[in-house]
Design brief:
Length: 533
């Protein structure tokens, strides 16, 4: 299929080429032509095309696209009156709900700079990041006021209120009495800063631009088959690039979003059944918790409407995708990429069943190469460093640094290989690789093995120095309730399933792995292994 056929197929499926009310279509088209791709134009176009369709279902109820667009315009006016203008940094520290996305779109609409903060940020991190990035305003949920206690209280605006005890300005006070009129396009577009996971230190700010054309949207929807006007449950956090990407691109399909402030597996299952959701957006840890949800809730709810379970944020452990699809529907589309790279590859249900653990295939308008240490492309089956080029790569870190490039392709930070069918497999981070007894070893191989043990609930493997072997693997393990597994049991299980050099030397049983909301293990927070002997 040529480029034109590809584009028409995707546009038709997501509803942009279907017959619509001509007056509404003209209004939507004018806004898109004036503003170009991006949050503000997409919301206005959605409100023009389907004003009475439900835009958001959340813990506060329901809101239509017309009401949602009006609230964004009021907040935009309120932010301007507060003195927020072009390029001004505004931090957002919120869970998933309507007030967060209202804030995000309004910030972009006035040409300001949005800083999306992790809900696990500590008081010190929040203060340091806000100071480092020069935030003029911090929009946050009331529950996070304790981590903002060292900040100037005049800069704080409460988004989600639990009660009236805080005594601060709210989004309601900012929008009170403001007009719902459309806003003119700012002299320059708003920008987004997404912070990296901070698994080893203070998160770095990764600057993102909104798409300059429709190609990134067409690439995404060409690999993950969204349909127009679907109900989309976004369980992944919106402050993370994966949740944000699905929200932003999803706007063009005029969906109904289901958002919950906290992830409760049983509630997600009930929402899918109640609202006949076609799309679920998750991180892999959520998939694992959904598989392990109350069996009675799984049995009682019909989730056959689910056509897409869009996953990203961390590697799929073992055969998690297969387990999920066996439990629910054959719907998993796993997105491999990063905040900095955008997408690299995408794996659909067929490839995940045929080759569990694959990161998938290269999507449209994307270049992915596996290179050796000299920068030469290696053949299928040979491991090397993964480099990528696409139209969604980040615009550098806020400290002025960037990633390494070779011939226009960005270093992903990962090592892997292609198989003969063109599917990519990721071995792990290039800085995770250890050399044990002269052999190159990646922790992920052992992690994928151990997570399949029926008495292991969660696991992470790290490399530690060793006098005799150079480096060795050591495993942190969370056992299922009631398990009597011992360290010797783990070692024997590993010996039967992985190469000798991938068997752990040390095992530590802990109650819970320190994971961030996207499922990545915060390795700097793991307890230290004590030297043996």
């Amino acid at each position: 299929m040529g480029d034109l056929g590809y584009k028409l197929t995707v546009l038709r499926r997501i509803g942009l080429l279907k017959a619509q009310d001509p007056i509404r279509l003209v209004k939507a088209g004018k806004k898109l032509k004036e503003w170009g791709p991006g949050f503000p134009a997409a919301v206005c176009a959605a409100a023009a095309r389907k004003p009475d369709q439900i835009a958001v279902i959340d813990d506060a109820g329901q809101i239509t696209w017309r009401e949602f667009s009006d609230e964004i315009n009021r907040l935009s006016a309120g932010l301007k009156e507060r003195g927020i203008g072009l390029g001004d940094p505004v931090a957002v520290l919120c869970r998933n709900h309507r007030y967060m996305i209202t804030s995000m779109v309004a910030i972009m609409q006035i040409g300001a700079r949005m800083l999306l903060l992790n809900t696990m940020a500590s008081s010190g991190q929040l203060a340091e990041l806000a100071e480092r990035e020069g935030a003029k305003l911090v929009i946050l949920d009331q529950e996070f006021l304790d981590v903002a206690d060292s900040m100037d209280q005049d800069r704080l605006v409460v988004a989600w209120e639990d009660d009236k005890s805080h005594g601060l300005n709210t989004l309601g006070t900012l929008t009170l009495g403001q007009p719902a009129d459309d806003h003119p396009k700012p002299a320059r577009s708003g920008s987004i800063v997404i912070f990296t996971s901070g698994t080893t230190g203070l998160p770095k700010g990764a600057q993102r631009k909104e798409p300059e054309n429709l190609n990134p949207l067409l690439t995404f929807f060409g690999s993950i088959p969204y349909e127009g006007h679907s109900t989309v449950v976004i369980a992944a956090p919106l402050f993370h690039s994966w949740g944000l990407l699905n929200f932003g691109f999803g706007l063009s399909t005029v969906p109904t979003y289901v958002l919950r402030r906290r992830f409760v597996p049983e509630k997600v299952i009930e929402d899918i059944a109640q609202y006949k959701a076609k799309v679920l957006v998750v991180v892999p840890l959520m998939m694992q918790r959904l598989v392990n949800a109350d069996p009675e809730v799984i049995k009682a709810n019909d989730v056959s409407s689910l056509k897409i379970t869009a996953s990203s944020g961390s590697p799929l452990a073992g055969e998690l995708a297969t387990h999920f699809m066996d439990t629910f529907t054959d719907s998993v589309y796993n997105f491999y990429g990063a905040t900095e790279t955008g997408w690299v590859t995408i794996a659909g249900p067929e490839d995940l069943r045929a080759a569990p653990g694959t990161a998938g295939r290269i999507p449209w308008k994307t270049v992915v190469k596996v290179l050796d240490e000299n920068g030469h492309e290696v053949p299928a089956g040979t491991t090397g460093v993964i480099y990528v080029g696409n139209e969604m790569m980040f615009a550098g870190y806020t400290d002025g640094n960037s990633k390494d490039f070779r011939d226009g392709l960005m270093h992903s930070g990962d090592v892997g290989h292609f198989d003969e069918a063109g599917r990519l497999f990721v071995s792990g981070r290039d800085d995770d690789m250890i050399i044990s007894g002269g052999e190159n070893v990646f922790p992920r191989e052992l992690e994928d093995c151990l997570i399949e043990h029926p008495e292991i609930q969660d696991v992470v493997v790290v490399g530690l120095p060793d006098e005799n072997w150079g480096q060795v693997l050591s495993a942190y393990i969370v056992k299922v309730a009631g398990s009597t597994l011992t360290e010797d049991d783990i070692v024997e299980y590993a010996k039967a399933n992985v190469a000798r050099f991938a068997v752990p030397r040390d095992v530590m049983f802990i109650d819970e792995l320190p994971r961030n909301p996207t499922g990545k293990v915060m390795k700097r927070m793991l307890p230290e292994f004590q030297p043996k002997g």
